[in-house]
């Protein structure tokens, strides 16, 4: 048996051997690294025994909360029964197939099939190829270009990061790859100018139509967007936005891809974000809440429109991952969805804790440092403002967000900062008093800032 490593050594070992994702490499050191040891409900504990309320659900993913032994037991049972088999070459395993059925049962009438991946990033690569293959099979060889949005996040693989609209990511690795184009995002607070949110929603949606005209409809395969842009800062679109996007995709015959990696599995008080906004995607990548992060699994939900062509006309699809539909991950995801169903967590977000969170979170709008406090379900953003009246922002938005975030963490609540926006995305099981604690801690941090 391996000798257990004394906890006091972990920081030094980590500094010596572990390169972290999305971390400032200069700051990886023994003292600065937070080591999370255990978790229960919405709480996590670090190496010093300090407790935090995780109002970010890990990384937008622990929807059912921590410490669910049922999921651990389902994974354990599956590992004993069949720890691994591939799903290539016409093979499957029971939990993989049952999970596909379960996802389809919640996704909507035209979304009946799932292609499994290990992550949201791989789901991005998967639908990207699928969309191009779809048009090629139909004889539209030139329909290959994909339109995405500035400031979007769709993952860290080469296709995922290219589809994402984050320039600082593009600068590392010469991205985006050819064939991907970015249009504006519906970020009214920062970019809406004198327009009303409704007017602005229509204006940015129509950038899609302009981009299709520029590229030529015969060259465009798909448009991708998150129902609510998450990592970009919880950018909640005005009500006019999605109906117009949906209309344009239909009228111009391009596939609509709804990236449900964050919005899926209850976060907005609906099973999927597209249901909240009332549009029907052709492809929908998922991950995160699919297993509540207990094990890595993702996938692409595929509409009948696309699946019928692939099944009817393609033959082999030369794409897949060794662990696509991994039986242990699928068993964990099935148990996770069973908990969401049995405890009515989607309904809880829609009718109970979501409305409670809405009232508490939006109460921050009266704070003098807050430009807007917005949310849908349990996904919220607070915009920090230099001047509330004119919507003027601080010159160094990242610094402001980091200051407030660090203050919240020091006071025991994990929130995320994207630039000058403070983001919350707590587990769907968060209690009312834990919502109060989250909002109070953020309010105190904003008081401290002014
Ligand atoms: N798509 C969206 C909307 C995401 O937020 C993320 C991750 O944050 C991804 C895709 C990539 O998922 P993963 O980190 O599992 O590869």
What is the CATH C-level name of the largest domain? Alpha Beta
CATH superfamily of the largest domain: Type I PLP-dependent aspartate aminotransferase-like (Major domain)
Gap between N and C termini = 54 Å
Mean pLDDT: 96
CATH topology of the largest domain: Aspartate Aminotransferase, domain 2
Question: Which small-molecule ligands are present, each listed once?
Answer: pyridoxal-5'-phosphate
Estimated helix fraction? 40-55%
| Count of discrete structural domains | 2
Shape: globular
Quote the beta fraction.
Answer: 15-25%
Largest sheet data:
4 strands, mixed
Radius of gyration from the CA trace? 22 Å
Describe the SSE topology.
Elements: H1 10-17, E1 36-40, E2 43-46, E3 51-54, H2 57-60, H3 69-81, H4 94-107, E4 111-117, H5 120-137, E5 145-149, H6 158-163, H7 167-170, E6 180-183, H8 188-191, H9 197-215, E7 220-225, H10 241-251, E8 255-258, H11 273-277, E9 283-286, E10 298-303, H12 304-314, H13 327-342, H14 345-351, H15 353-362, E11 370-376, E12 379-384, H16 397-410, E13 413-414, E14 416-418, E15 421-424, H17 432-449
Parallel strand pairs: 3-13, 5-6, 5-7, 7-8
Antiparallel strand pairs: 1-2, 2-3, 4-10, 9-10, 11-12, 12-15, 14-15
Helix pairs in contact: 3-13, 4-13, 5-12, 9-10, 15-17, 16-17
This protein binds pyridoxal-5'-phosphate (PLP).
Pyridoxal-5'-phosphate (PLP) binds at residues 119-121, 124, 153-155, 226, 230-231, 259, 261-262, 287, 298.
């Amino acid at each position: 048996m391996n000798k257990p490593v004394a906890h006091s050594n972990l920081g030094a070992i980590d500094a010596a051997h572990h390169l972290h994702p999305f971390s400032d490499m200069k700051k990886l050191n023994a003292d600065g690294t937070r080591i999370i040891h255990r978790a229960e409900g919405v709480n996590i504990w670090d190496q010093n025994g300090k407790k935090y309320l995780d109002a970010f659900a890990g990384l937008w993913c622990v929807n059912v909360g921590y410490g669910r032994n049922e999921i651990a037991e389902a994974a354990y049972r599956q590992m004993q029964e069949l720890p691994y088999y591939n799903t290539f070459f016409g093979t499957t395993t029971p939990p993989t197939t049952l999970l596909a059925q379960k996802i389809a049962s919640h996704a909507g009438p035209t979304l009946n099939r799932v292609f499994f991946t290990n992550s949201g990033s791989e789901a991005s690569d998967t639908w990207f190829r699928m969309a191009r293959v779809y048009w090629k099979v139909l004889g539209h060889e030139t329909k290959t270009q994909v339109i995405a949005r500035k400031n979007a996040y769709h993952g860290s693989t080469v296709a995922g990061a290219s589809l994402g609209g984050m320039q600082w990511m593009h600068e590392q690795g010469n991205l985006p790859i050819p064939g991907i184009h970015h249009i504006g995002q519906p970020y009214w607070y920062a970019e809406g100018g004198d327009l009303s949110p409704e007017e602005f929603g229509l204006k940015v949606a129509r950038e899609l139509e302009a981009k299709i005209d520029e590229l030529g409809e015969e060259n465009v395969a798909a448009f991708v967007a998150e129902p609510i842009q998450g990592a970009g800062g919880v950018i909640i679109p005005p009500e006019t936005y999605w109906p117009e996007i949906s209309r344009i995709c239909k009228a111009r015959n391009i596939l609509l891809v709804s990236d449900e990696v964050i919005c899926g599995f209850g976060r907005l008080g609906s099973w999927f974000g597209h249901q909240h906004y009332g549009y029907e995607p052709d492809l929908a990548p998922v991950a995160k809440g699919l297993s509540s992060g207990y094990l890595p699994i993702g996938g692409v939900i595929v509409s009948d429109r696309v699946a019928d062509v692939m099944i009817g006309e393609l033959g082999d699809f030369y794409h897949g991952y060794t662990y696509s539909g991994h039986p242990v991950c699928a068993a964990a995801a099935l148990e996770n969805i069973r908990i969401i169903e049995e405890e009515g967590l989607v309904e809880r977000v829609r009718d109970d804790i979501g409305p409670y969170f809405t009232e508490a979170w939006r109460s921050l709008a009266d704070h003098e440092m807050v430009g807007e406090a917005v949310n849908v379900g349990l996904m919220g953003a607070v915009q920090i403002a230099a001047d509330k009246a004119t919507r003027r922002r601080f010159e160094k938005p990242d610094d402001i967000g980091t200051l407030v975030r660090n203050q919240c963490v020091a006071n025991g609540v994990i929130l995320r900062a994207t630039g000058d926006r403070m983001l919350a995305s707590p587990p769907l099981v968060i209690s009312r008093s834990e919502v109060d604690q989250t909002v109070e801690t953020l309010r105190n941090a904003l008081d401290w800032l002014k």
